[in-house]
Design the sequence.
């Protein structure tokens, strides 16, 4: 407990959630003294709980008014000079494909046939650096945030709303400034030529993933020829990438349908279909091309300092642990040999478990065996994608490294990347890379916590109900059981009747002393939902003995 004098309560009342700072802890006092920094609201209220999770991870939950005001003063007008120094793509068929609730459209695709067998594909990215100048109040706030945070029911944006949802967002039937990578591709999806350039675009259509998927499946709809051709090229790019050793993590995401009060009314799986993969492949291609453009230099020339997106090889010990884990289900992978051999055996495993009851469990454990991708000025390639050069260029509305990359390439493109600017980037980029990696990690953790909270709130409506599940963890205090909707709960060892159970860590199992009854990882069990604790974000199950 933290003792807070009345005058330091900031209007807080019993039952409020608050952010508190410890000021002192005198030696003779049992409790520290503190002051209230902010009142988040009534405990249990949806917005209060969301803000509490953000505060817990040191993430912002409000946007500074002075930064919003600075954004409001920015002009959205495209000047004659802007048109003059950019390629005009306004008459080329262009569209965006995004989730149905998205407002910040970072990227658009254009396509036109140059001649039989040769296509021009444009990956057009919002030109945020045109509006957000380095060192400005908006830039400093974006650098601090480093990323937009996507929670279950809201987005905490990196940029003020006027920029991310209006000025920069590539909205349909509006002329927008973009930074583009233009590819000339043949029928085999081979890049014959590319250029990185400033453009003016006008999106003809805003597709949701579902709408684009419908065109792919039925062959009917707006701009069907363009969508189908882009999908054909994307599928070839994907096949090549997987053949080169990219790992095919294709996980189903759990999503919640939320009512107006933030209460989860249903849980569903978001499956990545061809429309999602179409966008993914062209974004990967653009990111890789930009990284190669900067990073690949003639012999005896030093590459320019640059924030790469890197992904190290898996730790051999973690691969061994993964192998031991999946052996319980009758699978195995290679833990030695070339990078390609290891990644191909992981892909085989991911293919073998598809549709099986242990799929989610094994995918989760396999992901944990991988290193975490991060930003660095030292390029070691991207193991998971099987790319020697990779960076983040395609989302400057929601990721700060992308915005910095736009600036570097813009200066290079316009011949302004002189020695003093190179020195400037050499100085600031290590910190940008490290801070952005840290903020991304925090955002991921906060997103996971809000998912956990919504799962608890959802299961509160199902206390007393029975479900089939799979044992997803065995510990000395009980069994973790995962339900088909990915909700996980604990069966505490004290609630398992009829025997005294011993935990065998090496075998990852729990064995009854008298009966020899054994609970192992991956074993199907039937449970009843016993209780849920919102404060701890935990769910307790009870075994239903058949």
Sequence:
């Amino acid at each position: 407990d933290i003792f807070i004098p009345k005058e330091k309560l900031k209007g807080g009342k019993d039952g409020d959630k608050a952010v508190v700072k410890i000021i002192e802890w005198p030696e003779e006092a049992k409790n520290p003294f503190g002051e209230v920094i902010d009142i988040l609201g009534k405990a249990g209220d949806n917005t209060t709980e969301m803000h509490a999770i953000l505060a817990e991870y040191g993430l912002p939950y409000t946007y500074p008014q002075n930064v919003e005001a600075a954004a409001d003063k920015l002009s959205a007008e495209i000047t004659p000079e802007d048109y003059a120094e950019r390629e005009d793509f306004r008459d080329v068929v262009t569209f965006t494909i995004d989730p149905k609730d998205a407002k910040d459209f970072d990227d658009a695709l254009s396509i036109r046939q140059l001649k039989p067998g040769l296509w021009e594909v444009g990956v057009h990215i919002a030109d945020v650096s045109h509006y957000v100048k380095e060192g400005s109040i908006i830039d400093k706030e974006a650098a601090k945030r480093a990323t937009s945070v996507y929670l279950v029911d809201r987005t905490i944006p990196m940029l003020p709303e006027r920029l991310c949802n209006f000025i920069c967002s590539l909205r349909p039937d509006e002329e927008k400034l973009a930074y583009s990578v233009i590819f000339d591709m043949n029928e085999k999806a081979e890049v014959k030529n590319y250029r990185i350039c400033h453009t003016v675009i006008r999106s003809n259509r805003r597709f949701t993933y579902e709408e684009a998927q419908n065109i792919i499946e039925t062959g009917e709809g707006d701009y069907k020829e363009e969508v189908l051709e882009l999908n054909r090229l994307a599928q070839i790019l994907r096949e090549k990438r997987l053949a080169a050793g990219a790992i095919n993590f294709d996980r189903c995401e759990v999503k919640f349908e939320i009512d107006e009060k933030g209460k989860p009314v249903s849980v569903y799986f978001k499956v990545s279909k061809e429309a999602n993969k179409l966008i993914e492949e062209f974004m990967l291609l653009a990111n890789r091309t930009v990284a190669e453009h900067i990073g690949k230099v003639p012999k005896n020339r030093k590459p320019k300092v640059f924030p790469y997106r890197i992904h190290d090889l898996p730790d051999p010990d973690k691969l061994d642990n993964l192998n031991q884990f999946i052996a319980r289900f009758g699978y195995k992978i290679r833990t030695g040999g070339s990078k390609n051999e290891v990644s191909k055996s992981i892909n085989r495993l991911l293919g073998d478990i598809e549709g099986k009851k242990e799929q989610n469990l094994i995918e989760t454990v396999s992901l944990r065996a991988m290193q975490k991708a991060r930003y660095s000025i030292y390029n070691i390639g991207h193991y998971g994608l099987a790319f020697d050069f990779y960076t983040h260029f395609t989302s400057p509305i929601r990721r700060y490294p992308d915005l910095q990359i736009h600036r570097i390439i813009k200066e290079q493109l316009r011949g302004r990347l002189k020695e003093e600017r190179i020195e400037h980037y050499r100085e600031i980029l290590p910190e940008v890379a490290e801070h952005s990696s840290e903020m991304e990690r925090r955002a991921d953790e906060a997103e996971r916590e809000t998912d956990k909270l919504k799962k608890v709130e959802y299961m509160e409506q199902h206390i007393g109900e029975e479900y089939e599940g799979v044992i997803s963890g065995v510990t000395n205090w009980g069994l973790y059981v995962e339900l088909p909707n990915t909700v996980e709960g604990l069966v505490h060892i004290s609630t398992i009747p009829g025997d005294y159970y011993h935990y065998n860590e090496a075998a990852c199992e729990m064995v009854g002393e008298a009966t020899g009854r054994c609970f192992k990882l991956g074993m199907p069990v039937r449970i009843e939902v016993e209780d849920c604790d919102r404060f701890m974000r935990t769910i307790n199950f009870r075994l239903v003995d058949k």
